[in-house]
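User: I'm writing a short report section on ligand binding and want a predicted complex to refer to. Could you take this sequence and phosphoenolpyruvate and write out the structure as tokens? A short remark afterwards would be nice.
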Amino acid sequence: MIIILQPDVAPDGPEVLEILAAAAHYAGVTGKVYSFKGQTHALVEVHLLGETKLVPADAFSDRRGVVRVVRVSERYRVIGRHAGQVDAPGFDYCGEHFGQETFHFFPGLCAVDEPEYVEATFRALAAAGITTARMGAYKPRTSPYDFQGLGKPCLPWVFELAGKYGVKVVSMEVLRESHLDEIRDALRASGEPTGVMLQIGTRNAQNFELLKAVGQQQEFPVLFKRGMGLTLEEALNACEYIASEGNRNIVFCLRGVKSHLGAPHRNLIDFAHVPVIKRLTRLPVCIDPSHSAGRRVLAPDGLTEIHHAAADGVIVGANMVLVDFHPAPASALCDGPQALTLEELPGFVDDVRIVREAYLKRVQRARA
Ligand code: PEP
Ligand code: MN
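Assistant: Sure. The structure tokens for the complex follow:
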């Protein structure tokens, strides 16, 4: 059961304390307070957990400060929209708002390699006015003999360079809990020049212990990538692992699913699920056209298949585009064939903006 409070109610205010006290009268029921206060949205909710079946909604609906009481299903208890009864306020991080109405580019290197390449990429992002990026330091590779990422040693200079070029948030995959500590320590040691969105890769989408670990901290938001062989329901349940541990600052990322029917793409592009995720959950939705299309091939119309895949997701309302760029794709140590070049960055940004505007016009027309 979710008790939604008026936006001016403080999370530790008397209205909330009264609700928690009332909830304590029901055996096996505990109350948990969730709050979000961004620049434009504020939200306070009390979630009643446990044996709530016998708790009558009107025991709470008439209390002061309460907007409404929503009885929720067991599934997607925290991330769920519950048939549109709860709002999707999104979250703020490092001065950026992430929600179901916002839009961000996260271009960058699949794998951090040379400092010159990282610097050139950040410089190109700055020139394009982009303050969010991707940078992989820990790489989960199919073969143990492939480049595994530079790991901890590269973190200080990657973060310093991000700060130098005004990058506020870097999306970075973590493979184990200790990587969070390494990232936290490196950020602290370099004076917090940037922020990090922890990426859970497709291969770890059901690594429940890792999901719990990123859920148990609230310092970093999480970009959760759909497991390549998971149904949407399984993937959303995995996200609920993160949220149920306490971290609600989650972005759900579609990156294609494994199927021979996707060939010649690397994965079958599943971006038609963007509006489905927005309907079922409160999460902003990211698309990754690079790992889904998988190859930088030019279509006869002059746009690459990566551009077209990005358009597929953006035209249906994606909130974020995570995309591989590299200054010299031929010498990239990971996923070079799917990287766009830095010369292509302004054109890609322009193209995606055209599609985003078209999406916003579609929405405006539908709502008119
Ligand atoms: C990545 O984004 O660097 C990555 C490895 O992607 P995925 O987990 O989707 O394969
Ligand atoms: Mn990759």
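A remark for your report: The chain has a mean pLDDT of 96. Residues 110, 291, 334-335 surround manganese (II) ion (ligand 2) (CB under 6 Å).
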